[in-house]
């Protein structure tokens, strides 16, 4: 740095004083290549550190998320304790709490299923004795007791039906949650739907109702013929129970394209009063009944649709319900089709 200042000598002569001030030593310029290498090294180091930190923080969250999904899908044996053995932070505490919750849920569900099986089996013996006593009472009583004995017989039959459905529900719960597996075979849905409709129509005629197949496309799925027949039959019988007199239950079967593979689309529609919108999601819950329009007076037990839903879910499908625009309830079944069929 140069500094200049004017000055005047005693003799009157003008001068300019110039001085050079000492400054910092100049570093040699850094080349662009070296600068890029240094920046890349810094970014790589920071990236590795951040990645390791992110993995350390997010891996337990991902593990817990997977476990929650497995538990909600029905795998009650899901645990995360082994994945958190080496951790001592809050995630380890959360993992232990999750395992305690899953163990408690598994125990409660197991107790419920065992209770259903035990009650169903224990009720069979007194019901069998009741039927024997009923026949003896018919022989010993007069005509005046006929109406009362008929009522006893009707209630006994309903109780037997309820027990059968409870046992079936317990067995299906074991299937769906990863227990026993049903035998798989190709199932011709077109023939199955037509046979179910014919049987249901035969029963519905006595109630001044009808069952008709309005559309049936050839569809082949993989599963158990007997289980699928039971599911569709439960849906159709439920529709027959609630459709109005002199109306018919309409069944349609066609193919539809899904994201991964084609599926069979079965629609069963009745012409009854329908159900409130807020109750649609509850229709497939065991023992659930909608008040007023669809109550115990219909003779149902509240298990038919629950059994159907579990069978359809066992076959990788879905079961939904909605109110039709023209009135009545519409139940839709989606079943994945066999590859190439």
Word description of this protein:
The chain is an alpha+beta fold. The protein folds into 2 domains: 35-181, Orthogonal Bundle (Helix Hairpins); 185-336, Histidine kinase-like ATPase, C-terminal domain (Heat Shock Protein 90, 2-Layer Sandwich). The protein has 6 helices and 9 strands, in the order E-E-H-H-H-E-H-E-E-H-E-E-H-E-E. The protein has helices at residues 32-72, 90-140, 146-176, 189-204, 225-242, 304-314; strands at residues 2-8, 14-20, 185-188, 210-216, 220-223, 248-257, 262-269, 318-323, 329-336. The strands form 3 sheets. It has a 5-stranded mixed sheet. Strands 1-2 form a two-stranded antiparallel sheet. Helix 4 (189-204) packs parallel to helix 5 (225-242) and helix 5 (225-242) runs antiparallel to helix 6. It is elongated, with a radius of gyration of 38 Å. It starts with a strand and ends in a 5-residue tail after the last strand. The relative contact order is 0.08. The model is unreliable at 292-297 (pLDDT under 50).
The CATH homologous superfamily of the largest domain = Histidine kinase-like ATPase, C-terminal domain
Number of structural units classed as domains: 2
Mean pLDDT: 82
Largest sheet: 5 strands, mixed
Total strands: 9
Oligomeric composition of the shown chains? single chain
Radius of gyration, whole Å: 38 Å
Succession of helices and strands: EEHHHEHEEHEEHEE
| Strand numbers in spatial order across the main sheet | 4-6-7-9-8
Which fold does the CATH topology of the largest domain refer to?
A: Heat Shock Protein 90
Report the CATH architecture of the largest domain. 2-Layer Sandwich
Q: CATH class of the largest domain, anyone?
A: Alpha Beta
| Beta-strand content bin | 15-25%
Report, as a whole number of angstroms, the end-to-end distance.
90 Å
């Amino acid at each position: 740095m140069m500094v200049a200042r004017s000055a005047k000598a005693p003799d009157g002569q003008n001068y300019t004083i110039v001085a050079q001030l000492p400054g910092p030593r100049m570093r040699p310029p850094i080349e662009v290549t070296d600068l890029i290498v240094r920046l890349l090294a810094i970014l790589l180091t920071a990236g590795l550190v951040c990645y390791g930190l992110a993995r350390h923080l997010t891996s337990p969250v991902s593990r817990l998320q997977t476990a929650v999904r497995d538990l909600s899908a029905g795998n009650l044996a899901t645990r995360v304790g082994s994945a958190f053995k080496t951790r001592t932070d809050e995630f380890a505490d959360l993992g232990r709490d999750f395992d305690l919750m899953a163990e408690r849920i598994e125990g409660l569900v197991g107790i419920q299923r065992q209770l259903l099986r035990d009650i169903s089996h224990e009720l069979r013996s007194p019901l069998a004795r009741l039927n024997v006593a009923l026949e003896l009472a018919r022989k010993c009583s007069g005509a005046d007791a006929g109406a009362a004995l008929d009522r006893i017989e009707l209630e006994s039959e309903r109780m037997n039906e309820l027990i059968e459905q409870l046992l079936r529900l317990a067995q299906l719960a074991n299937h769906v949650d990863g227990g026993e597996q049903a035998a798989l075979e190709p199932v011709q849905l077109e023939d199955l739907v037509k046979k179910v409709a014919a049987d249901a129509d035969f029963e519905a005629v006595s109630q001044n109702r009808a069952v008709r197949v309005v559309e049936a496309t050839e569809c082949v799925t993989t599963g158990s013929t007997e289980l699928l027949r039971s599911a569709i039959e439960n849906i159709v019988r439920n529709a027959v129970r609630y459709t109005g007199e002199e109306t018919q239950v309409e069944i349609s079967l066609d193919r539809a394209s899904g994201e991964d593979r084609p599926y069979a689309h079965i629609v069963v529609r009745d012409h009854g009063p329908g159900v409130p919108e807020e109750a649609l999601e509850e229709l497939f819950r065991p023992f659930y009944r909608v008040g007023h329009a669809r109550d115990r007076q219909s003779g149902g037990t509240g298990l038919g649709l629950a059994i159907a839903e579990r069978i359809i879910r066992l076959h990788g499908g879905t079961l939904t319900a909605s109110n039709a625009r023209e009135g009545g309830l519409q139940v839709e079944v989606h079943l994945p089709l066999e590859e190439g069929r």
